[in-house]
Amino acid sequence: MRHTTSTTTIAAALAALLLAACSDNDSQPAAGDTPPVQSLPQLGAATGASMAGCADLAAKLTYPDTTISAVNAIAAGTVSVGGKPVPAHCQVLGEMLRRTGTVDGKSYAIGFEMRLPLNWNGRFFYQANGGVDGSVVSALGPVGGGGPLDNALNQGFAVISSDAGHGAPTPFFGIDPQARLDYGYQAVGKLTPMAKAVIKAAYGKAPDRSYIGGCSNGGRHTMVAAARYADQYDGFLVGDPGFRLPLAAIANIAGAKTYAALASTPGDLGTGFTQAERALVSNAVLGKCDALDGAADGLVQDTKACQAAFDINRDVPTCAGARDGTCLTTAQKSGIAALFAGAKTESGKQIYTSFPWDAGLATNGWASWKFSSPIDRDAGAVGLIWQVPPEDPATFDGRSFVLNGSLDTMLAKINATNGIYTENALSFMTPPNPSNLAALKNRGAKMLVYHGTSDPIFSSDDTTSWYEALRTANGGDAANFARFFRVPGMNHCSGGPATDQFDMLTPLVAWVEKGQAPDTVAAAARGSGNAGGANADLPANWSASRTRPLCAYPKVARYKGSGSVDDAANFSCQ
User: Which fold has domain 49-240+439-573?
Assistant: First the structure.
């Protein structure tokens, strides 16, 4: 039976669970002969400041190669999040490094927006945006998850957002070699000192603590910053990171080829694996894996155990006749299983990584990434932003590129360089050495990472492998400076049959500035009436206000054996 709970009650419950989740320990318990956890520097807490208003701010803001186009006073309540009005602040609009492209002759600049609260908490937040960037979106500062009830600006942070060096959310900027580099990593490096200078001019002091965060490509930006700009930030909030984005995009193109070959309607990729068939597989996964955590509740908490428990060939019926949504053909099983195991090129080279079997395959969001994005997004990114040389933008056809192109050729070209494009895609798009975060660690900075286990474009397996490598590089335990939280059932950054509403920024600040390392993070479902917006993917038999603890890897949430399965209090991280 569904029931609703007031937003105030939900927020209070989440706050109580979050406070209970934070501890003063800076590592998970060691096992066996694991060496003692290294003692790291403890960074101090930020102290706030205020400014009278926005009227005279423009005259104070000067920085080399930077133009401030507007400073606007934004009254309290003009912006709201989760039904809460954001306090009064100043909006600063501008751009850096206006130039003309050396190859395409087009005009480029790094556009940005900053929002500076009149009552400032002493902290700076760099909002790393998603997709191919290209738009200066509102600088609010995401805290993580879907349907947020809060943001960094509302909490008193000064926040910046940017277009990462090109003025449209299309891939054509990839013809310009400098625009590629700005998108990959240099925009963050250029904007960060400028933003800190603006903050100092506005409040009379630089930020005491600086944070950077985002999801998807924003998660990638943040992981790259952790490797390249560890001296500039104290806290890194990484969501569903596409930190090997070019490889993930080619793997998704490989998926499109498979689904096109399986399609019952030529040209319609979605008919290669229909919604009914995806629900069939999701339900089969639940049938084998749902109760592995002690509760049959529609969530696969023990992702690792599930991969051993589920077998698509054994656990999904094979069609004896026509496809009708109650079975998969032998060809479907073979093709889909190969994609989940990790897509390969025509010559058999592994492109990216595996995807975990999970319960979130039947959603519209999953379908969009698998069946529409290869042509609408991945083709342009691979062909125009990452390949060397790029395709001709005047004649580029994304559908033909995907369905007729060679995966081996794509893979070779994103690894190539020439006299114009001197850094290849895997150089400018990925962290230089993802498992070496010594600079971040040794100065007392912290990182929180989350990833939905039903993410259809960037696999949580990839992030899990990265975190395992990080643990290995740090004597078997990286928990004293970086923690990873898998979000069961969540699709890409939000949605899916999941408790996808959570705040990762608050525990990150508590860890950075107070030494309170989070073992769990409170998460809630977004049912009807949720102030952050309802999640259309929630199963009908879930409570609208279901809660769960998200557990620091490698622990998983397990049912205690009694009480409502909609209440986080009845689960523990083990």
Answer: Rossmann fold (3.40.50)
